[in-house]
Amino acid sequence: MKKILLLLSLTLLIPLQSYSQEKWREGTHYKVIAQQATEKKEVLEFFSFWCPACFNFEPMAKNIKSKLPDDVEFKKVHVNFMGSTSAAIQNDATKAMLVARELKKSLQLNQAIFKHIHVSRSSITGIKDLRNIFVVNGVEPEKFDKIMSSFGVNSQLQMNNRLIEKYRKHVNGVPNLIVNGKYQATFTRDMTQDEIVDLVVFLSNKK
User: Fold this and answer.
1) Spatial contact of 141 and 131, defined as CB atoms under 8 Å apart
2) Residue 192 phi/psi, 5° resolution?
3) Residue 142 contacts residue 129 (beta carbons within 8 Å)
4) CA 170 to each of CA 28, 42, 51: distance values in angstroms, whole numbers, following the listed order
């Protein structure tokens, strides 16, 4: 009986895998940007707090992250090349994102930064404004200052910006998803939200 069930499950699995391979086509739904995939599976979301499309993409990013296999890391990479403000201020926002990550409040505090810019229509001129956003959202000022100036956050900022440099020729706009260092997801106008998630999950399992 166990052997029969195993054969049935394999019979069902093979057509599903074939369907995914036929549905998602190189050149239409994704680009191959490197010869080799990264050793560890990962999805990098390049985004900017100043990007309206990125703000609207946030629920989708959350959904993608929840549907990825356990062995796939989802990481947000905040870019610093938007024309809306200076690279220095964008780097400050990257550090704020990293502070939120250290506090394990990324979802809440990233949303607070997004809403400050796109809902309240308020400007960010540097760390002081970012600090105020965090304080309003329940973060102690001293804790923010300590983490913001820490060696760990400054090191992570450098790592974030090295990823920008590494993929810069492929990331001309945001939001942008690079999967396993080898594939760049391409979303067509006719794709549903579920299909976008399905595509990213498919690419995350592709070497």
Assistant:
1) yes
2) -85, 170
3) no
4) 16, 17, 18
Q: Give the count of alpha carbons within 13 A of 17, CB side only.
A: 8
Q: Give the residue extent of every domain in the chain.
A: 26-204
Give per-residue pLDDT as tens, 21-54: 679 999 999 999 999 999 999 999 999 999 999 9
The structure tokens listed for 93 are 């926002």
Give the three-state DSSP class for 73. strand
Joined together, the tokens standing for residue 181 give 């260092």
The model carries a pTM of: 0.88
pLDDT (tens digit per residue) in 60-110: 999 999 999 999 999 999 999 999 999 999 999 999 999 999 999 999 999
Contacts of 144 (CB under 8 A, 6+ apart): 99, 131, 134, 135
Tokens 């970012």 map to which residue? Answer: 130
Q: Are strands 176-179 and 42-47 parallel, antiparallel or unpaired?
A: antiparallel
**Which residue would you say has higher pLDDT here, 70 or 20?**
70
**What confidence tens digit (pLDDT) does each residue in 167-177 have?**
999 999 999 99
The separation between CA 155 and the C-alpha centre of its own chain, rounded to angstroms, equals 19
Q: Are 197 and 63 in contact (CB under 8 A)?
A: yes
Q: Which long-range contacts (CB under 8 A, 24 or more apart) does 189-197 make?
A: 193/60, 193/63, 196/60, 196/64, 197/60, 197/63, 197/64, 197/67
- CATH code for the domain defined by 26-204: 3.40.30.10
